[in-house]
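Thread: Newbie trying to understand structure tokens

Hi all, I'm a second-year student working on a class project, and my supervisor (Dr. K.) asked me to get a predicted structure for one chain before our next meeting. I've only ever worked with sequences, so writing a 3D structure as a token string is new to me. If someone could post the tokens and maybe explain what I'm looking at, I'd be very grateful. Here's the chain:
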Amino acid sequence: MKYGVMMFPTDYAIPVTELARAAEDLGFESLLFPEHTHIPASRKTPWPGGAELPKEYSHTLDPFVAMAASAAVTTTLKVGTGICLVIERDPITLAKEVASVDHLSGGRVLFGVGGGWNIEEMENHGTKPSQRWKIMRERILAMKEIWTKDDAEYHGEHVNFDPIWSWPKPVTKPHPPILIGGDGPRTLQRVLDYGDEWMPIAMRGTDLKARIEELQTMAKDAGRQQIPVSVFGVPPRADFVERMRALEDVGVHRIFFGLPPADAATVIPLLRAAAEVAKG
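---
Reply by user tm_fold:
Sure, no problem. This is what the structure looks like when written as tokens:
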């Protein structure tokens, strides 16, 4: 089992460079950063996590800037998005951002992706919410072309470009692993269509074992090997970790512990406690 951590990289929390160094020193494999480009002040879309939207959602740093800074002060720690809102980003620019961080880090990027939940946020980027899954699919497929082809082109309904040149190519071949977030009705099919791993949230009431078994059955029927699963937002408690370890045989190979976006005096002791739970 691999162990990582995730934290909203905010303008008031522990600097990501300090967090990254501490995570690597404590033996963690990876560090993920969520993304929101902004939060519309209307607050029309309810937050899936409850009534009050936490402050960090509107105070996040750009995840790729945070990833690059974290990679620059570490040597083995993987850095990634958990998740990147692909539907709010231009795919040609995003392909270069992912490849650039992978290049600079020596191949240490995990690319977690999702469709998002905030309707007004995606609309502000010109994305029609009803089309977001088709848009995400095409953008990811287009990025794969850019990452793997010298003369890359893509022709779809939502993404369309003739042959282009774009370097650097990712160090990780054929590209950094794409971790598909979420647990909607068609999420598992999306994992099969254009993902490398599934990254469900631990605390959303899903029968995780049954869903992973369903994924692996779908993978077998599609002629694929067992698909790795990374579970997101696992509480750093021994009982939760034991539940995840019990799922290793069906594909769970990584746990991401959630950390609050707070100062170093708060976060570092929690990080150490999570490291002790992982060792147990």
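A couple of things are worth pointing out once you decode it. DSSP finds nine helices and ten strands in the chain. The radius of gyration is 18 Å. Feel free to ask follow-ups in this thread.
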